[in-house]
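Whiteboard transcription, Tuesday session. T.W. wrote the C-alpha cells on the left side:
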C-alpha cells in the first residue's frame, strides 16, 4: 500500500461526506419548500378573506413616521398612523405602506377591518402587497430547493453509488 492508495481512500471518504451533506441539504430544502407552500397558501386564503369579506371604511392619517426597511440598501418607508370610527367607537391602526407616496397628516385612506374586532385592521392596499411578498418568498425557496438538488447531483451522487 503506497501513499496514493491512502489519498484515494481519503478522497472517497470525503466524497461520501459531501454526498450525504448534499442529500441532507436537499431534504432540508424540500421541508422548507413545503413549509413555504403551506404559509403561502395560508396567507393567500387570509388575504382573500380579508379583501372580500371585511368591511371597508375611511380613515384619517394622524401621524407619519419614516421607518427603516429591513434591507439596508432600501430607503425608509412611511409608517402611517391612522384613526377611524366604527359604530360610534374610535379605533387606530398603523401600517408601513410601501404604496403610499409620502402620505400627509390629514389624508384620507381606505381601511379594512375585522367586523368582530375592528382593532384588527389594515390599509386596504396593503393586503394586495402582502400576497406579492409571500409569492416572492415562495419563489426564493423554490430556487433554493433547485440549488440543493443540483448540488446533490453535481457533488455527491458519485460518492453515494
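and on the right, the sequence the group agreed on:
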Amino acid at each position: 500500500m503506497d501513499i496514493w492508495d491512502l489519498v484515494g481512500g481519503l478522497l472517497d471518504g470525503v466524497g461520501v461526506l459531501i454526498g450525504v451533506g448534499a442529500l441532507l441539504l436537499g431534504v432540508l430544502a424540500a421541508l422548507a419548500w413545503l413549509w413555504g407552500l403551506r404559509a403561502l397558501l395560508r396567507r393567500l386564503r387570509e388575504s382573500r378573506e380579508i379583501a372580500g369579506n371585511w368591511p371597508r371604511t375611511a380613515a384619517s392619517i394622524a401621524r407619519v413616521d419614516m421607518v427603516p426597511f429591513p434591507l439596508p440598501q432600501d430607503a425608509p418607508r412611511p409608517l402611517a398612523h391612522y384613526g377611524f370610527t366604527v359604530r360610534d367607537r374610535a379605533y387606530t391602526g398603523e401600517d408601513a405602506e410601501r404604496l403610499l407616496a409620502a402620505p400627509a397628516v390629514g389624508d384620507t385612506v381606505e381601511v379594512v377591518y375585522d367586523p368582530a374586532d375592528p382593532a384588527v385592521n389594515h390599509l386596504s392596499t396593503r393586503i394586495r402587497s402582502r400576497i406579492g411578498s409571500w409569492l416572492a418568498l415562495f419563489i426564493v425557496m423554490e430556487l433554493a430547493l433547485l440549488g440543493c438538488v443540483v448540488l446533490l447531483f453535481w457533488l455527491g451522487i458519485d460518492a453515494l453509488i
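Someone added at the bottom: The chain is about 55% helix and 25% strand.
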